[in-house]
Give the backbone structure.
Amino acid sequence: MIVSLTIVRYRKIFIPFALLAMAVHRLPLILNKGCTFWKLLGCGHNGTFDLQPDWQQWGLLAVWDERKDFDDFYKTSFVSRWWKMFTYESLTVLCVPLESHGYWDGKQPFGDPKITGYEGPIAILTRATIHMNKLKNFWNHVDEVAEIMNTSPGYVTSVGIGEAPVYRQATFSIWDSLDHVKSFAYRNPKHAEVIRKTRQENWYSEELFARFKPIETWGTINGKNDLKELLK
């Protein structure tokens, strides 16, 4: 199994094509037999969630049976040709799942891996569908959590992604190591308190947490690819 995340940026003049892509890209992905799971995603600003989406930046997260399935898609598919025509920048990260808990649209897209002993750069995906009556609680804490993450030791970079505005949100982040992730998630008092509130107040109707080993990356977003240096 290979998991890919591709983030692309459209020129402002092509934003209507970015919106159109959210509809027309569905069919080729549905028909791709090597792709077992996919999500077309909008993006927030500055690496986190945002009530005002970044209309130029969009993403595709997908799960592939084999590396060849991804390579064929990336080189020859209708979606990749669309990207080459209408976008001016893109970044792709390929990963192998290490651990995954929870569900995404009622599925476990990354299986149930439990790979231990890995040491090195790590990617983290957290996503949730937020109860409508808990949206205010959730968004009141977004900026605080983003600030904690961005200033945490071992944090490298992140992107805020979502299937739908406001209530279906995710973050894909890169860290130097799993120890740094655990320190941010559980040892920072402010973040630990937010985690406690999500459980106590039942913010989410569905959630998923996954860890990945990044194996390859190329391209840039806003002229940067911070993971590339880590994988050398």
About this structure: Helices lie at 15-24, 26-31, 67-76, 78-86, 135-150, 178-187, 189-200, 226-230.
